[in-house]
Every structure is written in C-alpha cells, then in structure tokens.
Amino acid sequence: VINTFARIDHLASAGRTPWHRASALGKLLLTGLFVGLAVTAGRWEVAAGLCATALLLCASARVPARLTLAAATGPVLFSLVFVLAHAPSGWGAAAVLFLRPMIASLVAVWLVATTPYPDLFAPMSRVLPQPVGDGLFLTYRGVFTLFARLERMWATLVLRGIHSRPLRGRLPAVGEALGTVVLSGFDRSQRLYQTMQLRGHSGRVCGCRHWLDLGPADLLTALVALWAVAVVLVLGTPGTP
Amino acid sequence: LPITAFEYCMTLAGPVGVLVAPAAAFQVSFMVTLVLALLGQGGFTVVGLNTLVLALSVRLAPATADGHEMSHTVVGLMRGAGALVVVPMLLLAVAVEALLGAGLGGFLARVRPDLLPRTGEGA
Lengths: 241, 123
Hints:
By secondary structure, chain A is mainly α. Chain A is 78% helix and 0% strand.
C-alpha cells in the first residue's frame, strides 16, 4: 500500500499525458459526474459501459496496469458482502452492485494519478472550513515522509526477528515501534509550524491557482463527460441492446 | 502491517483520540477518510459515514482512558442504542488495536509523557 501511494504521487507530478495538462477543476467535475452516474446506474449495461470508459481513462493516463487492477479489484470483497446481504434478483442486479464501486475506484485513481495534490486540494479548500482545507494540504505533504519512515521501521523489526515472537508479544512491540513514528510526526509538525511562523504565515495556506487554468486538454475532459452521459442515455433506455 | 498471515490496516483511533483531544476528532477523521477515498481506498459516497464511524472511535478514546468517563459513556450508549451488538470480527479487531495501542501508549509514557493527558484530563 505504501509503495502504491508513492507511485500515484510520482505519476501525478511526472506524467506527460493530455490528462496531466487538463485543469484540476474539470477533472474533479468529471470524477463527480462518474460517481453520480455510477450511483444512479440501474442497468448492468450502463455500469459496464461506464466501467469500460473508466478503464480507458486509466489506460490513456498511463496508469500502470497493476495499479489499475488493484483499484478495480479493491472493492470486490466489500461488494461481495453487499451482494450477499441484499441477495439481488438476477445476475444483472448483482453485476451492477459489483461495478458501481469499481467505477468510482477507477476514476478516483485516474484523478489522483493525473493531478498533483496542491491542484487537487486547492479547489476543495475553497468549499471546506479553513482548518480542514489547510490540514488536508499539510497532511498529504507529510504522509509520504511518514510512509518512508514506517517502511524503514518495519524492515528493522523484521531484521530483529519480530516474526519469531508470539503474537501477544508481537503486537505491543509493533505498537512501541509505531510510537517512534508518532513522535517523529509530532516533532515534524512542530518544526513545520515554527518554520511557517518564521516565514510570516498569515493563518491560511494559499494553494496555487493552476487548478483553474483551462486549456485545450479540458476539451478532452468535456468530451468524456458527454460520452458518459451518452452511454447512460443510450444503454439506460429499456429496449436498447 | 503484516501482523500474522494477513495485512492488518490499523485505524489507531484510540491513540489518535488521546493525543489530539476530542475536539479535533471529526476534522482528523474527515481528512484521513477523504485522502483514502482519493486513493481508491474507501468510497466517495460514504466519506461522511466513514468519518462518523472513525470519529466516534476517536471521540470515545479519551473517555476510555478515564474509568469514570468510560462508565458514563457505556451507560449512555446502552440506553441510547438499547443493545450493543458485537460480532467476533469486531472483537478481534478491537483486541489487535488494543494491544498495539497499549504498546504505543507505553512507549510514549516512557519517552514523552508530556504528550499524554494527565489523569482527569481525558475528555
């Protein structure tokens, strides 16, 4: 999971596809549209069409196949529980229950793999309360440092034979090791706050305005939005194949 | 973390609740849930629900650190909900989280006791 997060972050910053040039606002709106259409999709044909489009989005954004597969299969277990609990009539209804979260997960991975996090959180911080918006920005910044530290910590534990201990003793040992990561995070946040104060922090983290830069690549986003609506209109009408 | 044959995703709601205080429970839970949803771990449409579930655990954690507060909390929950339904998987998860939290809390108590609330300041 840690490597997955790091790869997504690298893809978002280093990618060179048209999706990486499109504005964050357009991509956020397209993601919202896909999620909305997936939630309201009643027929398996519509859900399958949207899922195929989401897969194409990931492929055209050069999201690695393993990452796409992980995003597509991640919600399957939860969907299975949902399907078993609902006992839907017919395989079509069951397929819709499986495909809905798959669409949302694929589009979410496409969004974060093509949008650097400052652009992603900047429009969100306009509608969220200030402490939450700033917190999102700073949290995402620190997460990758903590992930790297967590990975090193786990390697140390394995080298020191954590697996040879009984489970009852292993969990508190892992907890103690996590304590070092917590302390590191605490110290890091304090240093960051002091640095921001020294640099004249006014109480508001101002995100960049790239998220509003509309360009030719946004036409592609609009086209995909129209395509998704067309899929719903054509395949969602009873009687159509 | 690969605790046994499975990889366990810890919430660490207990330690977070004790360290950041109840007032920040919902902010912290929302940020975690939203970042996870953006990374394909969790759903967009259940960000609110996941936030509430996680924040409730974070909010209750300081109460569990204080026996008097805890008894009030449990009584309140029992009265409000009527019954407490606990499934075995939940119990197992609670046990794992409790052991991890005990290790983490013990470490902080030895190394940086100033980060932990004093007795009576739990909630």
